[in-house]
Amino acid sequence: MQIFKNIRLVAFDCDGVMFDSTRANQTYYNTLLKYFDLPPMDEKDFHYVHMHTAAAAIDYLFKGRVDLEKVRGKQKNFHYPDLFPLMIEEPHLRKVLKILQTDFKTAVATNRSNTLRPLLDHFDLTKHFDMLITSMDVVRAKPWPDMLERLIGHFGINPENLLYIGDSPLDAQSALAAGCHFIGYGPEDLGAEVQITSLAGLPELVMKGCA
C-alpha cells in the first residue's frame, strides 16, 4: 500500500470527490439550454462541464449558438442554491475531515466559482477547511497549477507536503504541474500514485506516513 510521507496539507476537489453533483449540474445547464430552445447535454457535454469552470462550460455549450451575454444574464438570475438538495455528500467525507483535521491543514481547490462557500455552508462543512480556493481566486483555473501553488505559498510548505485528491484529468494535470502528490478518486484511471473509490481509507494513507 502506498504511504504518503511528510504531508502537511490535504486538499480536495469539490465535484466528484466531496459531492456527487451530477443531478445538480445536469439540471443547471439543461435548464439554461432549454431556456434558449437548445437540446439537453449529451454524455460528452456533461463530461466537459463537470471538469471545467462555469465560464468555460457556457462557452462550450453556447458559443456560436446563442449570444453569450444573454446566457450570462440568465445565469445571474439563476438561484443556484435551489440545486443544493440535489447534491449528494460523498460517504465518509465528514468523518474523514474530522480525522484529518487533528494533524493536517485541509483545503478545497475547485473550478467552481462563487457557489463553493454557500454549498459548504449549506452542508455545514466550511468549518472543516482552513482555506478555500476557487476559479475566481486565480488567473488560471485547472488544469493550470495556480490553485495548488497558491495553497503551497499560503501555508509556507513545499510541493511534496501537499496531497491533492481529484477525480478528473484536469485535477491530475494540475497536481503534476504543481509537483505535489495526487490521489485519483473514482473509477477513471488518472495515472495517479493511488486510485481510490472510497474516502474511508484516506486517513490511513496519509497518517501512516507521518507516524
From TrEMBL:
Keyword Hydrolase: yes
Pfam families on file: HAD_2
InterPro entries with a match to the protein in the record: HAD-like_hydrolase_sf, HAD-like_sf, HAD-SF_hydro_IA, HAD_2, HAD_sf, PGP-like_dom2
Catalytic activity: 2-phosphoglycolate + H2O = glycolate + phosphate
EC number per UniProt: 3.1.3.18
Pathway: Organic acid metabolism; glycolate biosynthesis; glycolate from 2-phosphoglycolate: step 1/1
Any GO molecular function: phosphoglycolate phosphatase activity
Transmembrane regions: none
GO biological process, one term: DNA repair
Root EC class: hydrolase
Key word Hydrolase present: yes
Gene Ontology cellular-component annotations: cytosol
Keywords on record: Hydrolase
Assigned protein family: Belongs to the HAD-like hydrolase superfamily. CbbY/CbbZ/Gph/YieH family.
Name of protein: phosphoglycolate phosphatase
Organism lineage: Bacteria, Pseudomonadati, Thermodesulfobacteriota, Desulfobacteria, Desulfobacterales
